[in-house]
Amino acid sequence: MASFPSADRLALLTNFGHSIGSVAYVYRPTHAEQIAELYRSAAGTGFTVGMRGAGRSYGDASLNGGHVALDLQRMNRILDWNPGTGVIRVEPGVTIGQLWAYTLEDGWWPPVVPGTMFPTLGGCLAMNIHGKNNYVAGPIGEHVAQFTALLPTGEEVACSPTQNADLFHSLIGGLGVLGVFTSITLQLKHIYSGNLKGYAWASPNLRQMMDEMESLKADSDYLVGWVDGTWGGSGLGRGQVHRAHYFAPGEDPSPAQSLRVEAQVLPDTFFGLVPKSILWQFMRFFMNTPGAWLTNTAKYVHARTLDHRHHFLQSLVAFNFLLDYVPNWEKSYGRGGLIQYQSFIPRAAAAEAFADLLKLTQRRGLPTYLGVLKRHRPDKFLLSHAVDGFSLAMDFKVTGGNRPALQRLTDDMSRIVLDAGGRFYFAKDSTLTREVVAESLGPDTLARFCAMKARCDPQSLLQTELYRRVFGSI
Amino acid sequence: MNFSSPLTPTPVAIVVGASSGIGEAVARKLAHEGYAVALVARRADRLRALCAELNARPGAAHAVAYPHDVTHFDEIPALFQTILRDLGRLNVMVYASGIMLPSGFSEYNFGKDRATLEVNVLGAMAWLGQAATYFEQAGEGHLVGISSVAGDRGRVSNPAYHTSKAALSTYLESLRNRLTRKGVHVLTVKPGYVDTDLLKAVARPFWVVSPEQAAADIWRAMRRGKQQIYTLSRWGLVMWVVRHMPSFIFRRLRF
Ligand SMILES: Cc1cc2nc3c(=O)[nH]c(=O)nc-3n(C[C@H](O)[C@H](O)[C@H](O)COP(=O)(O)OP(=O)(O)OC[C@H]3O[C@@H](n4cnc5c(N)ncnc54)[C@H](O)[C@@H]3O)c2cc1C
Ligand SMILES: NC(=O)c1ccc[n+]([C@@H]2O[C@H](COP(=O)([O-])OP(=O)(O)OC[C@H]3O[C@@H](n4cnc5c(N)ncnc54)[C@H](OP(=O)(O)O)[C@@H]3O)[C@@H](O)[C@H]2O)c1
Description:
Distance between the termini of chain A: 29 Å
Number of helices of chain A: 15
Bound molecules: flavin-adenine dinucleotide, NADP nicotinamide-adenine-dinucleotide phosphate
Low-confidence stretches of chain A: none
Strand order of the largest sheet of chain B: 3-2-1-4-5-6-7
Number of domains of chain B: 1
Strand content of chain B: 5-15%
Mean pLDDT of chain B: 96
Number of helices of chain B: 8
Radius of gyration of chain B: 18 Å
Radius of gyration of chain A: 22 Å
Oligomer: heterodimer
Number of strands of chain B: 7
CATH topology of chain B: Rossmann fold
Number of strands of chain A: 21
CATH superfamily of chain B: NAD(P)-binding Rossmann-like Domain
Structural class of chain B: alpha/beta
Mean pLDDT of chain A: 94
Strand order of the largest sheet of chain A: 17-12-14-13-19-20-18-21
CATH class of the largest domain in chain A: Alpha Beta
Low-confidence stretches of chain B: none
Strand content of chain A: 15-25%
CATH architecture of the largest domain in chain A: 2-Layer Sandwich
Largest sheet of chain B: 7 strands, parallel
Distance between the termini of chain B: 51 Å
């Protein structure tokens, strides 16, 4: 066999925000047998193997510099589809976008989706992603009927909530370091229209936004708040709330029309004029503190003047994947790219802690240009980021000069989050230290995760930069 | 900040020829500037001593010794991978290994000539080539080669040494022309006389600088993205004259 790993496989991999990257030996298997073969080649060499889906994590979750990265995007076949029951079996490289485009016409939609449709199902399970409906639908893991995974021991396991339940609840959310998903069976959600009934309105500050979301959550299928991080004082955390409902059966007069893929496609131009593909080039001029202030203020004023008591129709895609509207929007952050920092705080402490976080970012002169507020509920997975409370995700621009300051800022933010009993989300993390992670997970969870790692991967073959950073190489 | 976060990752350097002289001084300088350094050369004891010294400083990024003979060319790809694996990334690659075997004015000794070329040229090509492949993918990085003023002209004293340094300078120039467009910086260092073991073979050195001085010059040139430096810089002027000296004069000189 050729030497392992092969130098001609070296390639630069980056995070979603292009602010973090490293060079790894990238292999792109199409079949599970090739993964088994790679496990055998890597065993005993000291080279670790890290899984990678579409690379849409905001941090170093799918990076493995100097080691091997398995890019699973070519394992993207749809294996089985039952339009009667809405049960679909796919390979891990199938993306959220590929999935809905395949099933929509039959009236089925992924019950949980992230804010972008490019992630793979493998990546979504490894992080146990949540949507804007987390408080009702839970994380994606709760909709997985079954999966198969190949452990580094060479063992292929089938897991469901009842079969190998401990593995099921550990591999989902297991950061890809316990085993690789080789097939995933999902229960989709029956829908009766390709549209949602949407409502949008302005909220004058964070506290009120949270109160509104709290009182509406029992009666909303989706809820999300877009927070203006540049505004202070009594308007701290002001922004817009977006709320949406599915259609009940029979409510959409022509579901066959709205359930077509064409009806979902995002338009190619803005105002029928500006091609979307070049929009990010213009957005660059606003990706600075005055620019972010201006755009956030414009959005707020616009939302305030909307009459929100009337609902409007929005396609499922337009509502859920708003961020995909502008291709390459992350590039508008400039050469240094961006990171995101998302924390999850129990309801009682959330308003105050988030206010403290926003104030801190403003005091340090590093305001977030985009904040997103969501409502969550706990789940039963081993590594879980959810709490009975809220999460606030904040995007930060990274520049050549602000990296140490940003690290110090997020270190201090993490202290606030921990003191409020909060948690973090590894899909969005690029700053947490081992100590902070240990404190947020607690000794019990940490010990159970380490025990699971030892059981699934005694040689510690599966690693990523994230894993080494927050758990240390065992 | 000791914690190497993804936002503030510790930069990594490989220094080949780090057991003494200029290489050792460069390794020390890089370590003091916050680099994690991989130290490569044959004398393992000296490398370990340097590691111990560098790792003893509070808050230091770590130094690791990789004993290796650069003429064992077949080992280089695997060793390069091992270092990358251990340190996770690479930002700076310095090739400082070199030998200058004393040569009589009428001596033609193929064994010595070959040994010189193996260490000064082939080892350099083997190591710099590995790093070039990596940097090309990374889209950034610094390649630093310690050549010499000796490569600017073939002089009577030591044909193999002069040839080796001319070859190294040309190799580095080619790499620069290939890699600048890929975002990689290539620095050719041409020292005059540096106070190291190698200098013991030189009869009457002048303008001698310390290895620390040379290392400081190299660091500054690296930071500024210079393509080539002479250390001391006045050698640039001298070598300009030497390079333009007509052959009918140059043939008659004794240096
Ligand atoms: C614009 C944007 C909006 C987002 N919105 C949300 C959101 O609303 N909610 C949310 O939860 N997340 C959100 N995310 C984060 C994103 O959903 C997750 O990071 C997701 O994991 C990305 O999937 P990926 O395929 O790109 O995986 P990668 O980022 O490549 O990898 C993620 C993890 O999965 C592992 N992995 C990948 N494939 C496999 C496999 N087959 N088997 C085992 N492990 C594997 C990797 O090792 C890594 O640990 C958003 C991201 C972006 C860019
Ligand atoms: N000193 C000067 O005046 C001067 C002037 C111009 C250019 N230079 C150049 O500067 C470079 C460094 O030399 P120096 O002056 O610092 O002399 P030095 O102290 O002798 O250093 C030479 C280094 O090369 C290493 N080396 C030699 N043979 C090797 C081999 N086979 N495998 C691995 N490493 C080997 C040595 O390590 P081990 O012996 O431990 O292997 C040592 O670390 C050389 O390329 C030299 O040509 C020096």
